[in-house]
Design a protein that fits this description.
Layout (H helix, E strand, L loop, with lengths): L1 H19 L11 E2 L4 E7 L4 E7 L5 E8 L7 E3 L4 E6 L3 E7 L1
Antiparallel strand pairs: 1-7, 2-3, 3-6, 4-5, 4-7
Length: 99
Amino acid sequence: MRGRRTATLTFSLVLAAAVTGAQAAPAMAATGTAPSCILRGSYNDGLFRHYTATNTCGKTMRIKIVLDNQVDSKCTSVADRRSLDYKQSGGTYARTITC
């Protein structure tokens, strides 16, 4: 009888994990809004809109500039005191995220 209870409990836990979508931690860290030490800016050079992100975090950060209605930047490593300058012919700045 004890074997049956153990098997039922194990099956219930596996079923609960499947139903709730529980899974192992992903291999890649979750992305989120970049911290305030990433300074954001933008300017227009007459042909393109430039979106900038300057790293003042004291360490290298992997960031991505997300735009509405246009292609986002690639996830890029930006060293401390360096900037990412991403240019597009359109779109609207949405946010800067870590990746």
